[in-house]
């Protein structure tokens, strides 16, 4: 998706010697950090004179392009334009990131794996929907060559989903791409999908396949398998002799992971499916309305884990014996709640990347293909997903309360209405109720999501303008010292980017205590993954950057502990960070800590007096 920094990204790539000259790319809180194969190929003076680039520094084997605090956006653009596999930020894999609860971690993993697939997933979902429409209005026959050839394209991503996700999951977890693909391809090999006696065990240990009979169209098993493979490979590969690594490592990783997937992940899915079948059978015996509510509320979650297949055999069996089924009626509203949620987000959101994703996902959801909507929009936003589940439960109970039954297998989304026509009696009341409840699902979800959804695009705070009497200054025009030590002019900082004041005016403090406190009331706008820097905005708009030491990004968070996270509201004097001065110095790095007002151009003057300070002492007067 296009970014306003794409042009700058192209200039950067072109003038560092092209993509082929890039050995690696990371970023910290203000700089793109390249490792180049040949720094002499870079056009340093051209880059320095480019709008959007503060300066260029060559130090310690790194070629650093200084951007400022919007460096993450420029980094994303460089990776996108150049098709570069970078690292989100230096040291981002060291485990120093903010800890997440299990649900947020799961959502982050699943959506991270699905995000690269969303465009193709949505487009093929739309193709399937259009084919269903052509069959419904008589333009095509479901047995015609044209239909079958195009349906093969439309359905290929869904059928072979584990292979695509094997690739993206490998990218996510740091496993070689082809190893992830090989594990997934093994699960979809014709022998495995055919089933039967040929695959009942491996080394005599029983294999229990998922409820669907195979791993086609599944997602969670391959994601879990690749996550294990990446962890496992990192643990043992250092013990493999160098001459044999080329073939020994993939042999061990792929074989062990494939076997454990069949022995562990498969049985877990099968046992879960059997338990769900028993559970829903008992619920059906108690109350049809309760069944509809539970199926509606849980259907999207079951689909994410591939456990919805546990209910499909029940529905097929019911129709074969009774001529109708109530088992899956409750899930019919789930597609339409996604439609309502997407429409609300599309109208309300300002983030252009998400907005562009909403349009194709919305079309796909109308035809019943909700994966792009779930994985691309509502699940990452969490609240819209939960709202859709709640309203789906209400709609499921409502459908059952109205006596709706399904009499045949039909399409999904708007193409699913015909399943509720009793063809023996020509009774269309079930279809009418299905239409009514689908409209309720769309409207109700739209209203609730529109009211409760908050745009995730950060709103730029108006910078305070210089006025007489220091209007707009922080705490009566004062920033307090965030760390105890010797305060000096920023011009004395050893880093030329800071000392030149290109990132803003301020001071550098030689700390005597390894603690950083908030210099004002405000909001944490950016906490580096490597914890070496933190940016905050005061209540009146002053933008402050605190950088612990010099080149401490290389420590990957070691020796530093955060007591805050991005988005936190903080009070002046509140403890933000702790750092080990002795450890940092033992790594040969200075602990000099710049404190900058990065929007100092919005003030008439930034006044301070060099001296020793304790945290909380008056440090800077903004005029």
Quick description:
The protein is of the alpha+beta class. The protein is 46% helix and 14% strand.
Tell me roughly what share of residues is in helical segments.
Answer: 40-55%
Mean pLDDT value: 83
User: Major beta sheet, specifics?
Assistant: 8 strands, antiparallel
Tally of helical runs: 20
| β-strand number | 20
Compute the separation of the termini in Å.
Answer: 41 Å
Estimate what percentage of residues fall within beta strands.
5-15%
User: Which oligomeric state applies?
Assistant: single chain
Radius of gyration: 29 Å
Sequence-ordered SSE layout with sheet pairings:
Blueprint: H1 6-15, E1 22-27, E2 31-36, H2 44-48, E3 55-59, E4 62-66, H3 71-82, H4 102-114, H5 118-136, H6 145-159, H7 161-173, H8 177-187, H9 190-194, E5 201-202, E6 205-206, H10 220-236, H11 245-286, H12 288-305, H13 312-322, H14 334-348, H15 352-366, H16 371-381, H17 383-401, H18 429-452, E7 478-480, E8 485-489, H19 496-499, E9 505-511, E10 515-517, E11 522-527, E12 533-538, E13 543-547, E14 560-562, E15 569-570, E16 575-579, H20 581-586, E17 593-597, E18 606-607, E19 611-613, E20 618-622
Antiparallel strand pairs: 1-2, 2-4, 3-4, 5-6, 7-20, 8-9, 8-19, 9-17, 10-16, 11-12, 11-15, 12-13, 13-17, 14-16, 18-20
Helix pairs in contact: 1-3, 4-7, 4-16, 5-6, 5-15, 5-16, 7-8, 7-10, 8-11, 10-11, 11-12, 12-17, 14-15, 14-16, 14-17, 14-18, 15-16, 16-17, 17-18
């Amino acid at each position: 998706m296009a970014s306003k920094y794409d042009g700058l990204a192209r200039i950067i790539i072109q003038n560092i010697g092209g993509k082929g000259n890039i050995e690696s790319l990371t970023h910290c809180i203000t700089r793109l950090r390249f490792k180049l194969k040949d720094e002499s190929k870079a056009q340093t003076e051209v880059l320095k004179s480019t709008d959007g680039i503060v300066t260029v520094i060559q130090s310690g084997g790194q070629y650093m392009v200084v951007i400022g605090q919007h460096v993450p956006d420029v980094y994303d653009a460089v990776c996108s334009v150049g098709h570069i596999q970078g690292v989100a930020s230096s040291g981002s894999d060291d485990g120093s990131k903010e800890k997440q609860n299990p649900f947020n971690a799961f959502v982050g993993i699943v959506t991270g794996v699905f995000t690269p697939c969303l465009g193709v997933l949505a487009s093929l979902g739309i193709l399937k929907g259009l084919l269903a429409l052509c069959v419904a209005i008589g333009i095509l026959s479901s047995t015609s060559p044209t239909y079958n050839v195009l349906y093969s394209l439309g359905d290929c991503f869904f059928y072979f989903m584990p292979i695509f996700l094997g690739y993206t999951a490998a990218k996510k977890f740091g496993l070689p791409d082809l190893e992830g693909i090989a594990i997934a391809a093994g699960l979809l090999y014709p022998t495995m999908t055919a089933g039967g006696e040929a695959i009942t065990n491996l080394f005599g240990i029983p294999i229990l396949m998922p409820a669907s009979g195979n791993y086609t169209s599944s997602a969670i098993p391959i994601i879990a398998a690749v996550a294990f493979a990446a962890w496992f490979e990192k643990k043992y590969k250092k013990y493999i002799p160098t001459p044999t690594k080329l073939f020994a490592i993939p042999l061990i990783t792929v074989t062990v992971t494939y076997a454990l997937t069949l022995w562990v992940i498969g049985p877990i899915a099968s046992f879960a499916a059997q338990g769900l079948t028993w559970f829903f059978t008992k619920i059906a015996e108690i109350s049809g309305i309760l069944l509809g509510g539970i199926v509606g509320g849980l259907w999207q979650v079951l689909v994410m884990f591939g456990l919805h297949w546990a209910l499909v055999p029940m529905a097929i069996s019911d129709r074969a014996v009774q001529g109708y089924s109530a088992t899956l009626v409750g899930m019919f509203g789930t597609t339409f709640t996604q439609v309502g949620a997407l429409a609300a987000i599309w109208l309300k959101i300002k983030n252009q990347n998400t907005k562009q994703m909403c349009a194709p996902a919305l079309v796909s959801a109308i035809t019943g293909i909700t994966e792009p909507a779930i994985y691309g929009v509502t699940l990452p936003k969490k609240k819209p997903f939960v709202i859709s589940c709640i309203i789906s439960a209400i709609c499921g109970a409502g459908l059952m309360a109205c006596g709706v039954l399904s009499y045949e297998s039909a399409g999904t989304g708007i193409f699913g209405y015909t399943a509720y026509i009793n063809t023996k009696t020509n009774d269309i009341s079930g279809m009418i109720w299905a239409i009514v409840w689908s409209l309720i699902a769309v409207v109700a979800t739209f209203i609730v999501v529109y009211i409760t959804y908050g745009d995730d695009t950060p709103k730029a705070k108006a910078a305070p303008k210089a006025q007489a009497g220091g209007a707009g200054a922080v705490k009566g025009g004062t920033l307090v010292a965030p760390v105890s030590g010797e305060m000096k002019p920023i011009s004395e900082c050893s880093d030329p980017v800071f000392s030149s004041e290109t990132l803003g005016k301020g001071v550098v403090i030689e700390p005597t205590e390894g603690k950083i406190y908030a210099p004002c009331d405000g909001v944490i706008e950016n906490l580096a993954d490597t914890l070496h820097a933190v940016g905050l905005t005061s209540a009146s708009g002053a933008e402050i950057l605190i950088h612990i030491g010099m080149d401490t990004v290389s420590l990957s968070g070691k020796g530093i502990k955060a007591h805050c996270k991005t988005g936190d509201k903080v009070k002046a004097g509140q403890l933000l960070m702790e750092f080990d001065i002795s450890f940092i110095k033992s790594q040969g790095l200075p602990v000099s800590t710049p404190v900058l007002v990065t929007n100092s151009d919005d003030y008439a003057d930034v006044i301070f007096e060099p001296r020793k300070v304790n945290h909380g002492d008056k440090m800077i007067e903004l005029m």
